[in-house]
Amino acid sequence: MHHMLHIKNGIVIDPKNGIKAEKMDIFVKEGKIVEESEIDKSQCKVIDASNKLVVAGGVDMHAHIAGSKINTGRTMRPEEMRMVRQIANKFRATVGRVLLTSPAIGYEYAKMGYTTSFEAAQPPIGALHTHEELDAIPMVDKAALPVFGNWHFVLKYVAEKDIEKLKTFIAWAIERTKGFGVKVVNPGGVEAWMYGKNCRNLDDEVPNFGITPREIITSLIKATEELNLCHSVHLHCNNLGNPGNFETTIETMKLANGFSNDKRQVLHVTHVQFNAYAGSSWRDVGSGAAEIAKYVNSVDNITIDMGAAIFGHATAMTGDAPFQFTLHKLLNARWSNKDSEIEGGAGIVPLMYLPKNPVHALQWAIGLELGLLIDSDKVVLTTDFPNGGPFTEYPYVMAMLMSKKMREKELEKVSPFVQKAANLPSIETEKSLEEVIHMTRDLPARILGLENKGHLGVGADADIAIYNLNPNEIDASNDYELINKAFRNALYTIKGGTIIVKDGQLVEEVWGTTYWVDATKNVDMKAIEDDLNEYFDLYYSIEKENYGVEEAWIKNPTRLVMG
Amino acid sequence: MIEVEVISGRTLDQGATVEEKLTDEYFKAVNYCELNEEDYNTLGLAEGDRVKVKTEFGEVVVFAKKSDELPKGVAFIPMGPYANQIIDPSTDSTGMPQYKGIKATIEKTDEKVLSVKELLEVI
Amino acid sequence: MAQKVICTFCGSVCDDVEFDVEEFKPKKFCKLGRSKFSKKERIKAPMIDGKEVSYEEAIQKAAEILVNAKKPLLYGWASTANEAIRLGVILTEKVRGVYDQCASVCHAPGTLAVIEEGIPGASLGAIKNRADLVIFWGSNPMEAHPRHPLRYSMSAKGLLIKGRNDRKVVVVDVRKTKTAKKADVFVQIKPGYDYPVISALRALIKGEDIDVDEVGGVSKEQLKELAEMMKNAKYGVIFYGLGVTQSRGRDRNIENAVKLIQLLNRYTRFVIWPMRGHYNVVGSGEVPAWEVGYQYAIDFSRGYPRFSPAEFSANEVLQREDCDAALVIAADPVAHFPKESVKHLKKIPVIQIDPFPNMTTLVANVVIPSAVYGLEAEGTAYRMDGIPLRVKKVIDTEYWSDEKILEELLKKVVELRGE
Question: Residue A83's CB: how many other CB atoms inside 10 A?
């Protein structure tokens, strides 16, 4: 049941609507934000938000929260599950240190005032599994991005330079997987991994296809733009995790030249921290963040997210199977791998970021540098959960971006290598509260094309967080501990008009929606029918008719029709 | 009497009758012990003969069969209630009893093969 | 007329098979699948102590048993759908019991190896497309997964491999099984010697010599040949079975095999995968993993999940008499557990949910018959390689599905606990 709510006297920051720490009231009815006149005040629950920060619910646009990767991670790492977060009561028992159970994921986001989270890499044939796990996550709205960059249909159509068929295939695949957009992971490189190789450079040839990552990326951007999907190509670059890779990253970003979109970026480059290394080996590795920032700031069609590294435990899990094998060798750690039909692959390796380890400290610094040096309108706050660390540390990252003093204190604890290899010690920038709210709310919503998320304008979803902070009084530069503390536990989290968290404690369990994108309207499936039949017949191990997810199997789906 | 190592495992017939455990077909699919020809002859067995299989953990009477799949000294009983009378129940802290590779003695016997229900009663 | 269905017998979950509803006739199935999709004796009605009752009465009684127990064991789950398993995990959390599933006596040692070393694997489609060397180690698909060799492994056609002649097949086993008879190479080892044989292969592949003439009954020459074959394969796979997980060494055998695969990937591509038995035994581990963090042997007596096979696996719990009631669903522990474990099951109240009468029915106090997934009920199952498939409902039935039974049981338990 949705209450009518009157959030009274809060200090609202709503960057999309130009509201900068103004005292105002917010009204909620039937899960939406409405005009005051829509509300019957005698029926309305009043929340006194005097001197408290009122913002839209947080939007995590890139986290690994559901599907076979995180679940294999859980299986591999029972040591992660020994941290007990909650004993079963009215709510589910929850456990997990960095890797969390599905109920824990929903609860922890809610406590932090986040109300939307996107699974960033859905193996297409495993889509049903991903959706089962999304359906097991309470509290938040969610979606999943299927992975395209090594799928043989894509490689075939890129080789044939057939953009029409590529568009048709993308529409087919997103509909079948009930996915949200076009995720690309190490394009061509994972196919090369099937032969024990990789594509580290944009012009490395993909075995047996006679094409290169450059062509795959360009074609996918073109197809996505012509389909006019609400989200752009979402790219995990080639050459991830290697010293010197920042050049590959910038070269990759240049592939977006010539493409533009009125509403959003045409290329989102994800967890850039892992792709922002200078140098030629781990000995002379350094930060390439400044060069990347310079490039991103100079163009208006690219956005990124940080992929910040947090000291402590993490688990690397990506569709970048060759990188995961490299990491396994580097760390001599446990390693899972999954080659998937003709769709790509994935890998999982546990790791830990240690402050005294020079490389780890550098990674930590680079993530923050990206957040500081790039325009706040182009960089989203993420940790690429659980690759860079837990999403529950977002408040730490927020505070670090806002306080030079905090960074100085933290720098004292880390390897001195950072002093010469990174820019962080010399960066003076302190992001404002408004900028940090922007980077965690309306910017990711805009990048994803979710018009009703990330802001508090009339018509927006009533996903609201209230924090114990008065923006007009806080001096974030000095009171960084207050920032770090306040954003960990919302005073109130409101999801679709229902109060789900009060004083940092869960009060009600709700089930959000799963968004999926239907772009089939503007393509003719006949164009690829023969190819689908042929590939399923020859190269798949299941029947085409059993491939994919029906909308009726999802708990609470929302279909977004494109075009 | 001979000394062997017993292994238990799936068979096609055991699988095909596994959802009909109270039928004669299932009984037939799991109530025998296969032996290598040499071991079979050493015991002087003929078709329809029974053997008593004894281990540290129990004993069971089953029908004897000749098999060309087994080396000398290895005996096979299909997975199921008969094999489970004699396998090693301890799990070495893994949760998994040792269903395969149990030292056993096998001798010819005149005792009858218990039915599935009778077997349950004697546990 | 025959329609396409998805087989719910073994972990191969063949989705190309057909069923004629009017004639009740399966087509294209193997012998195991045919048995599943044939008419056979069913549990006629819900029963309490042998007396027929309604579903509601049986569920009421089952709920009372679970709520009154200090520590119930909820075991089985391998032959039901994820939707039911999820409710079962939540139910176990509610009644603060122990959740364990059939892998405990099947492939769970492989899960322990995943914890030690991870699992470098592949989907069955990737294997059929690429594997030029297929090794069945302690597994016998000709008897346990009859269509696996045709669809996915031995003679499957794919992208790079156009048929049986394009790949080598090796069987490592203590018996010359039906699968071994179809292999290019049969390596016969002594029972319990998997670990040292794997260690010898690791040494040889690394280029080290082994200072013995034979290991586990296998000559040094044959070991060298096998090592060379593995190293020279373009894309190899080991499919391991219960021959490895149920014999001496158990999880350590697989851990060692995974280390062998890690090593081989330094020279070529190689993967390893378990030949999972029941059609959704993978789901019975995956679902609790996302709901509560672990795959099996999970105790909730403290109100949160704890994992420990040494304490909370069904056989340990039963042999230590550490449960005072049991719910058995989609499994038959009385037939498949050692007699030391069955003894305790005979003493405590047992609730059974299953379509078919089996040995557990003979000891159960409450028997609740259910619909057969894939035939009478729809739901999600994970093939042995984790590929999810939605199994179909093609005929109507009066029987309730496991999902519905558990949904009602969960409601009743919540009601009795006064929540």
Answer: 16
Strands (E), chain B: 2-9, 32-36, 50-55, 58-67, 74-78, 100-109
Query: Can you tell me the distance from the alpha carbon of A441 to that of C419, in angstroms, rounded to the nearest whole number?
Result: 37
Looking at the DSSP bridge assignments, the partners of residue B67 are B36
> Taking CB atoms and an 8 Å cut-off, how many pairs form between chains B and C?
174
Helix H, strand E, coil C: the string for C123-189 is CHHHHHHHCCEEEEECCCHHHHCCCHHHHCCCCCCCCCCCCHHHCEEEEEECCCCHHHHCCCEEEEC
Asked whether the beta carbons of C133 and C236 are under 8 A apart, the reply is yes
pLDDT at A303 exceeding the cut of 90: yes
Q: Do residues C245 and C190 make contact, with C-beta atoms less than 8 angstroms apart?
A: no
Residues of chain C with pLDDT below 50 are none
Could you report the predicted ipTM of this complex, rounded to two decimals?
0.97
A522 belongs to a structural domain: no
Asked if B96 reaches chain C (Cβ–Cβ under 8 Å), the answer is yes
Q: Which domain holds residue A20?
A: 5-56+454-506
B69 to chain C, closest Cα gap in Å:
4
Distance spanning both ends of chain C, measured CA to CA: 50
Count of domains observed in chain A: 1
Q: Is residue A476 part of a domain?
A: yes
Length of chain C: 419
- Distance (Å, rounded) from C-alpha A517 to C-alpha C137? 44
Asked whether the beta carbons of residue C122 and residue A92 sit closer than 8 angstroms, the reply is: no
SS3 of residue C64 by DSSP? helix
Percentage of chain A beyond pLDDT 90 is: 99
Contacts of C338 in chain B (CB under 8 A): 57, 84, 87-89, 97
pTM listed for this prediction:
0.97
Any idea of the CA torsion for A362, A364, A367, A369, to the nearest 10 degrees?
-60
Contact: A133, C290; criterion CB under 8 Å: yes
Q: Which of C404, C408, C403, C409 is nearest to C77 (CA)?
A: C403
Beta strand extents in A354-419 (DSSP E only)? 379-380
How confident is the model over A209-246, as pLDDT tens digits? 999 999 999 999 999 999 999 999 999 999 999 999 99
Place of tokens 């009477």: B61
pLDDT one-digit tens code per residue, A447-499: 999 999 999 999 999 999 999 999 999 999 999 999 999 999 999 999 999 99
- Return the structure tokens found at C412: 């009743």
Inter-chain residue contact C390 with A74, CB threshold 8 Å: no
Check residue A2 and give its pLDDT. 52
Domains of chain C, CATH where assigned:
42-105+279-416 (3.40.50.740), 108-274 (3.40.228.10)
Q: Is residue A19 part of a domain?
A: yes
Task: Report if residue A232 sits inside a domain.
Answer: no
User: Which of chain C's residues have a Cβ under 8 Å away from the Cβ of A71?
Assistant: 286, 289-290
> Is it the case that chain C and chain A have 3 or more CB pairs lying under 8 Å apart?
yes
Instruction: For residue A502, give the CATH number of its domain.
Output: 2.30.40.10
CB C263 within 8 A of CB C375: no
Of the candidates B15, B34, B10, B41, which has an alpha carbon nearest to the alpha carbon of residue B26?
B15
Using alpha carbons, list the distances in angstroms from residue A98 to A82, A104, A383, C118, C300.
11, 10, 11, 18, 21
**Of C283, C222, C337, C321, nearest in space to C89 by CA:** C283
Residue labelled with tokens 């249909």: A153
Q: Which of B8, B69, B94 sits opposite C309 (nearest CB)?
A: B94
Confidence check: pLDDT of A3 > 80: no
Which of C36, C188, C340 is facing B71, going by the closest CB pair?
A: C188
Strand partners for C98: C73, C299
What domains lie within chain B, and their CATH numbers?
2-122 (2.40.40.20)
In chain B, which residue's Cα lies nearest the Cα of C315?
A: B95
